[in-house]
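Lab notebook, bench 4. We co-purified these components, and the gel suggests they stay together. Before we commit to crystallization screens, I want a quick structural picture of the whole thing.
Request: model the full complex, all chains together.
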Amino acid sequence: MSEFAVELQDVVKRFPTPEGGEVLAVDHVTMQIKNGEFFSMLGSSGCGKTTSLRMVAGFEWPTSGEVYIEGIAQGHTPPFKRPVNTVFQSYALFQHMTVFQNVAFGLEMDGAGKDEIKKRVARALEMVQLTGMDRRYPRQLSGGQQQRVALARAIVKTPDVLLLDEPLGALDLKLRKEMQLELKALQQKLGITFVYVTHDQEEALTMSDRIAVMSQGKVLQMGSPVEIYERPNCKFVADFIGTSNFLEGTVKSLEKGMANVFIPAFNTEIKGIVSGEVSVGETVAVSVRPEKIRLADKAVLNQNCFEGTIDLVTYIGSDTHLYVGLNGMKLKVWEQNKISSLDPTAYYTVGQKVWLALFPENTLVMASE
Amino acid sequence: MNPYKRSPFIKVATVLVYFFLYAPIIGLIVFAFNSSRTNVFFGGFITQWGPLQMEGSTVVQSPCGPFHWFCDLTQNREVMSATKNTLTIALISTISATVIGTMAALALQRYNFKLKGFSQLSLYIPIVIPEIVMGIGILVLFSQAFNFLNSSLGLLGDSRLTLGLPTVIVSHIAFSIPFVTLVVQARLQGFDKSFEEAAMDLGANELVTFWRVTFPMILPGVLSGALLAFTLSLDDFVITFFTTGPGATTLPIYVYGLLRRIITPQVNALSTVWVLVVVAIVFLLQRIQSRET
Amino acid sequence: MLKRLRENKSSQGTLLITPTLIFMVGLLIIPLLLTLIISFGRRSADGNVIYTFGLHNYIRILGISTACEGGQSLCFDPLYANILRRSLALAFNSTVLVILLAYPLAYFIARAHPKRRNTFLFMVLVPLWTNFVIRVYAWMMLLRTQGVINSVLGWLAGLVGIPFAPFEMLYTPGAVLVGMVYEFLPFMILPIFTSLEKIDNSLYEAAADLGANPIRTFLRVTLPLSMPGVVAGTILVFIPVMGTFIVSDLLGGRQVILIGNLIQRQFLDARDPTFGSAASLILMAMTLIVTFFYTRKFGFGEEIVAA
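Here is the predicted assembly.
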């Protein structure tokens, strides 16, 4: 067994447009997905994540580069000869077949015996908690149940790799949260590699062992959820994953993984951790997550500390979201409501002066592109 | 709220238009039971069962009672042979046009190829040109081609190529294909490609995918296309008129021939049977379509 | 071989379309071209075609004659031009009448309860699919001097004691018009219904909410939104009315000769296929021109397929 379940090596995919031109859907993507890993490709629509997945499934072939599954180059192998199965965004359940027939379809194609098919279908349906539904037709099922049938149909063949193309996109929020946990549990139970495509960053953070953030056909960053959230390597990733405040500046000096950045808007220097790669003199983005800014009534730091005025206060229950204006900029600050109080003075009010402390260890300096 | 829903004008107009649509058909059916042979006026129903008895041109008693003209119809050899021709033509042309048209619909909906635009456009020709123009064109083609072949091959007498069942069938296939294609194409538009991808993903090759997944899913569309082709063929007069030859008379052609000569209630009986068959087919078509949605 | 076909999507498509193309080219396009070629030819003594090139058939249809009374070299013979004009006028009148009859019915069906809508539609389809020739025959029976209409009228007149002389209705231009309207009415109802059905109820509510009375709602909302259906229906009615010869043949007798009858006779009785071909192409040109300008002005969409 190869170390990597799936490997994309310098894969490029171009599509012809109806006007006779070409679009570059996947732009020199290289990624390695380890065996047994829950791997997510995350990005907004058109970023190339679905095309990459479809090339692993065999629905598309790379224009150049190569896709390896279990170490074997796939070339133009058709989908029905690849050891992977797919859960489709639209489920793609065969409407004219019962649940049983849908799930049995893949086994039938492999020429499995009747008894074996019965046994394995029953086990797969049990795994997705659909026992007893095998005689129903897809249209007689709820969206969540259809989703489970699609899942059962894909796992019944025990593929090396399960490909999931936004499988939860059509479900409502509550069901989606439930299914996220279930999918994760299922993956651990089966021990097979999941490659998951989603545009929902929270979903990717919740389930994945590793995430590849993609944009415009390229992989921007690959890493664990913590790495992606805490050390985004560029402004795009920091902006796409979670919420961030950005300040623009120029790197003045670098030492031991820290950078001093001159911020023209503040006419002063800020110190922060270098995230990704930056060099002296480069124009960079300084990113601070709103929950990591400390509010105080006086300057608590010698550096990285500024006085501002509260512009907007939004109470959202667990947190209070504030906009603090300083030097013509607005910074988002999220304060957790740690004390239960009905007294209005216990909360910040508009027009109040506050000090913002941007601790250097919470401040990230990264490439602005 | 809908300001028009209860407008009496719409209701009265609707009743009148439906009356206009149905009065001739009902009249036609009533006269199929006419006791008067000349069929000029309604002489009342034939009420007595028994051996055929006539008084002048009025049928007083018949073995089939009021259904005298329907029984009479089955005795008419010309009607029977025209029925046979009509059904033969309709069946062969429907099957051929359905297969060919479905293939074309798949090609146009799924693939890109060189002559795609031209192919799609050519399907609209029979819709935007009058039927008679198409009929004349095919007649000219066959007669010129047959003239040329007969003289260059030196064919004489019975071996000469003439218009007949084959020419009618080929022409019916030609005008049915666009309708089948357009109907199946419309159904395919809502057909997500991921169904086929799912089948392939699960290990089915292209052929298995087609027979197990694609075909069953587009079957309602194919069936309504086939029924449409069948009714078009049954119903066709103009194209058949120009491409038919001796021994290949269809029912509409036969009826047309009768109308220019003498009319007996037999024609009404034939029409009544026709209407009933059509009602059945249309009903079936509607059921298929409503089951689909 | 199979592998190459599998990887080449374009040749798969070509393979699937080929039979259709053979039929479309062989039995539509080549015949039309052949008709064009023949229309320039001459009729031989035995009714066959002599392939030459001349515009004489077209000149003859347009009414420019060289065999004139009074010794002129050129004069206008209105025989065929009148036929063309009559056909156009009849097609126009029938279409307008059909729209007037079809619209209320289509509107009624579109606004009916969804459960009953299919039944009402079904009731439109039955006459549509009843054979064309049979439907003409039905009108022959109604319109004859001793036919159903005259009998009913005579009976009514007898009841109130008015002397009654049967109307001569069959074999008149009016009979042809009624026959045409009857034959093609369903072709207008279906597309108008399709476009009316698409109009969301909230649009009527919005119009009412914004203060439009029913008549203004109809003129400003319903009618414009249903125009694609009317346009599609017009094409589906106008084209066949122009080309039909059975209706005029059976209901008009020798009184009403349309371009369809003219063409038919050239291929049967008169046996001048070259002149018939020219007339056929003129008919096609006329319908294409009308269709082109009409659709360019209004445009039409899927409604035409719906019927």
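The mean pLDDT of chain B is 87. Worth comparing against the SEC data before the next meeting. Strands of chain B lie at 48-49, 53-55, 58-62.
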